[in-house]
Amino acid sequence: QSPENCMFGKYIDECLNDPCINGQCINIDGSFRCECPLGYSIDISGITCEDTNECEIGNPCGNGTCANVVGGFECACDDGFEPGPMMTCEDINECSQNPLLCAFRCVNVIGSYECKCPTGYVLREDRRMCKDLNECSAKPGICKNGRCENTVGSYRCRCDQGFVANPTQTECIDIDECRVMGNLCKNGRCLNTLGSYNCVCKPGYTTDITGTQCVGKHDLHSNCLILTHSVPSSCSCFYNNECSTDPNLCGSNGVCQNSPGSFNCDCQRGYSLDPSGQSCEDMDECDGNHRCQHGCQNLVGGYRCSCPQGYLQHYQWNQCVGEHCFIFFNGNIKTFCDTG
Ligand SMILES: [Ca+2]
Ligand SMILES: [Ca+2]
Ligand SMILES: [Ca+2]
Ligand SMILES: [Ca+2]
Q: Of the bound ligands, which one is closest to the alpha carbon of residue 74?
């Protein structure tokens, strides 16, 4: 124990002199201490409680402006905030304070609130009421492969040819013509494309100008010069029997044979196909292999052998025989005539 603190043989109660400024004195063995109330803190002398500047410690107001006052602090809250139980500025829930704030739905956000609209509507200029959203102008590229039509609360797609709207009419979907329509691309295979379809044709057939029909190569050039797109009845001309359509086809010396997508001329004996392939012309047998020993004379549809003077073509043999000859029928046919 230090002698200074000892008087009359007992400890001094320093608090009797009220040494603490703005604070409460607490007597302790051989000394004392000052306790400061809330909002004050002890200075370096140890006996004076001074005001605490709460505004310099952290940010006690949060979303507001702090003002220091003796023994405490005050908060001036920002818009959308109000002082809470701990003085700190807290968000105001405007939506619960005023249920009529928004026409459709109120959503509280920190420091404010937002009005929301149902799908297909947007906020009006007042930010409270809702109006129709014109999706057609608001969303570029909407209704791809079609035309957009605005409606109140929504929109619908009017689709281009070859496309169909989905059940909600908000999209245009390619029609799979190959699957939806039967009997496309006869004489070929149907291949779906975006907005249309193509035919991949069998050998001997080719696509028309639209690519959506397989036509016989002959038909394309003669019977079906004018082909119309997507008219099923126009297909009929591809299956024409050219032979019956044109009885003069192949001429009088040939027989017309219809074939899928085309026709052939079968020529009579003694005739051959002309370069056009559409008629039969007389064959000049004398020009090639003939069986005449002497002269050969071409005839329409055949030929004749000629014999030197005094000889005749035998009616049966391919020989020239003398005008006066003897034929014996003696088991074998023999002639003693001079042969040419
Ligand atoms: Ca203070
Ligand atoms: Ca709020
Ligand atoms: Ca709309
Ligand atoms: Ca298609």
A: 1
